[in-house]
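In this supplementary section we document a worked example of the pipeline. Step one takes a protein sequence of length 83 as its only input; no multiple sequence alignment statistics are reported here. Step two produces a three-dimensional model, which step three serialises into structure tokens for compact storage. The input and output of this example are shown verbatim.
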Amino acid sequence: MPAGDGIVRVSRETKGRGGKAVTVVRGLAMEAAALEKLAKQLKAACGSGGTVKDGVVEVQGDHCDKLVALLAGQGHKVKRAGG
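The serialised model returned by step three reads:
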């Protein structure tokens, strides 16, 4: 289980991805199974694919605002990271 400071950070990345945008969610201190389940809910809400790598949820496309609202609604302390 990754250690976190209690804040979930949502950011958008394109570097190293051929110019394609990916929304990255970091700081979710959960067990692997719970993280996979949450990632599935987030991907379904955005209508796109994605994965979980090393405790980081990646959702294809730029869905930062939608994910911030969803996570805040679930009771997480969420910040929008990056420019």
